[in-house]
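Q: I have 224 residues here and want to know how they pack in 3D. Can you give me a structure?
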Amino acid sequence: MTNTLTHDKLLDLTRARIIESAGEVFAEAGFHKATVREICARARANVAAVNYYFGDKLGLYTEVLKTAACHGRAVADQAQVVDPPEQALRFFIHGMLRKMHDADRPSWYARVMSHELAQPTPALDVVVEQMIRPNSRILCAIVGGLLDRPADDEKTRLSAASVIAQVVHHVHAKPVISKLWPELKTTPQTIEKIANHITDFSLAALHSLRREHAHAKSPARRTK
């Protein structure tokens, strides 16, 4: 039993090492230019290990993208049970920003996603369905509650996109932000300030949209 457990642990470690090395290589070269040989060399693994664990290069790349995109699943799952929706939105935004700026989060996460968004591969469909869409549904439900609209309403979905765009901006545009605003340092305190700003800014807009929607639906308005 001990030998079996040790063998299984070694397999898990090898798989994790390949994913980590693949993330670095894909972040540097993109999917098409990256080679399995380079990935396995960095991981100190046999080239055949990629087929064994992931099927092929695309399977490995898909797993790398899922790893890079999985940071928000736990946050979103917890946010959906927070009440009222104002607090749920605050929890969602703060949690996402903290995860994306976690000191232990590998730097290749954002870079490999940037490559994929610039040159999409078939792996994107898997990542969207398994990782991104569930988060989006939860955010839309929260925003819909704030707007008094269904989660799949057009205004709800546009508003949810505006919220998450602010969060993602501080990750993917970080190299630009550092040049435009060099004195802005990425510290836990700064992340909290940014998260509070995004939340307050978003809630002000959402409350205003809700008032406009209620006014448009009012009987006095309809009889004019």
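Q: Anything worth noting?
A: The mean pLDDT is 91. The chain has two domains: 2-67, 72-216.
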